[in-house]
Each structure stands twice: as C-alpha cells, then as structure tokens.
Description:
By secondary structure, the chain is mostly beta strands. The chain has one domain (about 5-94). Helix content is about 10%, strand content about 45%. It has one helix and eight strands; from the N terminus they run βββαβββββ. The strands form two sheets. Strands 1, 2, 3, 4, 5 and 8 form a six-stranded mixed beta sheet that branches. Strand 2 (about 20-25) and strand 3 (about 30-35) form a beta hairpin. The longest helix has 9 residues, at about 35-45.
Amino acid sequence: MATHIVTKVRKELSADGTHRHIEGVCTNAGTHYTRKEVVDSIHAGSLWKTQADGYEAVIEPVAKCPRSGCTAAPYIRTNPDSTKKDNLENLDAC
Length: 94
C-alpha cells in the first residue's frame, strides 16, 4: 500500500458555472492526479492524505460533488466543515 501526501488542490469551474469544485490534487512531489485517479488508487488500497500548515487529514472518496445539482463524480473530501487546511477545499492551488 502506497501513501500519497497531497499539499495542493486544483479546482475547475462547474459545468453550470455556479461554483468551483475539485478537479484534482498535487502531491508533495509535484505530481498532479485527477479526482478519478485518487479514488481508483484509494479503492486499490493506497492511502491519500493532506499535509499543509501543520494540518493533516485522510482523503476519502464520495459519490459526487456535494453542491446541490452538481454531478461531478467521483469526488473526494477530507473534513468538509473545517475552515482550516485539514479541509481539502482549503489547500493552496496547484
């Protein structure tokens, strides 16, 4: 089982133009992975987690983007209610 350390996130405009959601992530090695690549890797047994500004969280797959009406899938998240960098949404851009 491999462990991947995510330090940054890449977002894209949603299909309906109402919000920006996670397109993929970048690791501490500088490699970009799409949401699907991360989800497939987790299902294959790898551990994905964030590390930034002293915060850390395990990334988990979810069915789709949590925004109402958004169909982006598969999707990933950490601590969705946090305002700190243990929330994947709050990482710096890659």
